[in-house]
Amino acid sequence: MADNMSPNSTSTSTTTNNKKETPVQLLGRFEIGKLLGHGTFAKVYHARSIKTGENVAIKVIDKEKILKSGLIAHIKREISILRRVRHPNIVQLFEVMATKAKIYFVMEFVRGGELFNKVAKGRLKEEVARKYFQQLISAVGFCHARGVFHRDLKPENLLLDENGNLKVSDFGLSAVSDQIRQDGLFHTFCGTPAYVAPEVLARRGYDAAKVDIWSCGVILFVLMAGYLPFHDQNIMAMYKKIYKGEFRCPRWFSPDLTRLLVRLLDTKPETRMTIPEIMENRWFKKGFKHIKFYIEDDKVCNVEEEAKDDAADYMCSSSDQSMSESDNEFETRRRVATTLPRPASLNAFDIISFSPGFDLSGLFEEGGEEARFVSGAPVSRIISKLEEIAKLVSFTVRKKDCRVSLEGSREGVKGPLTIAAEIFELTPSLVVVEVKKKGGDKAEYEHFRDKELKPGLQNLMDEESSAAVAAAAAAVGSSHLPSDTE
C-alpha cells in the first residue's frame, strides 16, 4: 500500500542482516503493525498510537477502488453510522483520516478475535451464551433506537475483547431509517444466507429491525447448539427451510430457551418478538444488567468499570495510609485532593474564534450546537449551578476537573440529550462557560438551553453581582465606624 504506509510492513519485522527495521508510521501518528484482515476494498492493520501508546485497529480503504465502484456514499454512510452508535458493545470509531489515495478508519482494537472461532470449537455453556446474547441485544436495541439497522449480524461480525465482552462490528451493510421507501420498508437484498430472514428472501420489502432480530435468533441457536438451525448443502434447499421456519431444538435446550427461539425465529415479522419483549423474557432476564455508560472525549466510558477502578484505588490508598493518622490530618488531605484545578486559559486565537464573524470551529469539529456564557462567579459555584439545573430536569451529572457532562434519561430517536459544559479562564476574574450538544435531538437541546440553562446561569450572574454590591457596601460602611480607641 502506497501513500505513507506499506501493505506488508510490520512493526517487528527484521532485515536479512538481523537489524530491526524502523516501524512504518502513518502520518507521523501511528506505528503500523501486522495485517489483521482484508476484503475487496479495505485492509485492516493493528497499530499503536505514537503519542499515547494505545493499541488501535486501522481500516485502510483504497479511494480509487471505491470511486470506480460508486461506493463513496456507502463509505460516508458507514462513517455517519459509526459516529451515531457509540456503545460499550459496539466497536468504536475514534477518528477518520484521509490522503489523496487512502481513507483511514482508526478504530478500537478488539483483542479476543471473532465469536465464530469460539463457537467453531463446540457449543457454549448456557450462562456464557446468555451473556453474549444479552450484550448483543443491548447493542442492537441501542442501534435501532437511533434508526440504525445492521442487516448482517452473524458470529463472524461479533468480536470479543480481553475481558470476554462482546463487540458488534462491520456496519458496512447497515441501513439508516431515512433509506426507508414510501411503503415504510427496506428493499435491498443483503446479509449472509444462513442468517437472513425469510422476508428478505421473499424480496417484497422488509422491516429491518425485525430482520436483525431474526439474525439474533439464529446466532443464539448457534451459540447453544454449535450448529445452524437451517442448514443444507444445497442453498436453495436451505432457503426453503428458512422460508418455512423448519428447525428443531436439541434436547439440551431448556423449555424457556425453546419458547424464546420459537418467537425469535417466527417467519411472520409482525408476530416476531421485539427488543422490549426480548428484554422482558424470563430466560433473557436471568442475570441481566443494563449497561450504564457515557461519552467522554468521544470515547465510550463504562460507569461500572470505573466504579470498580475507583474502589480499587481507594482500597490501595487506604492501605497505604498510616493507622495513626489523625482525623484532622485526613480531612486536610481530602480537601487538598478535591480542590478544583485552575481552568484552562483562552489564547487570542480562541477569543477571536468566539466572534460569529470569525467562527472557525467548523474547521476542527463536526456539528454540535454551541453556546457561551461569561461569568465572574467562582468555578465551584458555576459547577454547583449546573448540577442544580440538571437536578430540576432529572439529568445525570458527571464532573471531571472543569468539565461537566449532563445526560437526559429520555430516549429519543437520536438517543438521550447529552450536553457538555467546559469552563475556561478569560481573565483572573472572568471565565467563559462553553456549552455544546454532544448527542440527542436539536429541538430538545435548544429548549433546555433557552428555558433552563440560560435563565439558571443568568440567575447565578445576578446573585454574584448582588453579592459583590453587598460586599462593597459593607466595606464602605465599616470604614466609617469608630474604632475602640476613638
TrEMBL record:
Entry-linked Pfam families: NAF, Pkinase
Domain NAF: 341-365
Cofactor(s) recorded in Swiss-Prot or TrEMBL: Mn(2+)
UniProt cross-references to PROSITE patterns, sorted A to Z: NAF, PROTEIN_KINASE_ATP, PROTEIN_KINASE_DOM, PROTEIN_KINASE_ST
Enzyme class: transferase
Residues at which ATP binds: K59
Composition bias type Low complexity, residue spans: 8-17
Catalysed reaction equations from the record: L-seryl-[protein] + ATP = O-phospho-L-seryl-[protein] + ADP + H(+); L-threonyl-[protein] + ATP = O-phospho-L-threonyl-[protein] + ADP + H(+)
Example of a GO MF term: protein serine/threonine kinase activity
Enzyme Commission code(s) on record: 2.7.11.1
Top-rank taxon, per record: Eukaryota
Function: CIPK serine-threonine protein kinases interact with CBL proteins. Binding of a CBL protein to the regulatory NAF domain of CIPK protein lead to the activation of the kinase in a calcium-dependent manner.
Family: Belongs to the protein kinase superfamily. CAMK Ser/Thr protein kinase family. SNF1 subfamily.
UniProt name for this protein: non-specific serine/threonine protein kinase
